[in-house]
């Protein structure tokens, strides 16, 4: 379960980073 949560959090972080790349 921890691995799944970690992967999900990693994807979410990547998504947020991509969002922040746009004005």
UniProtKB/TrEMBL annotation:
Name of the protein in question: Uncharacterized protein
Source organism of the structure: termite gut metagenome
């Amino acid at each position: 379960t921890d691995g799944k949560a970690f992967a999900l959090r990693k994807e979410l972080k990547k998504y947020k980073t991509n969002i922040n790349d746009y004005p």
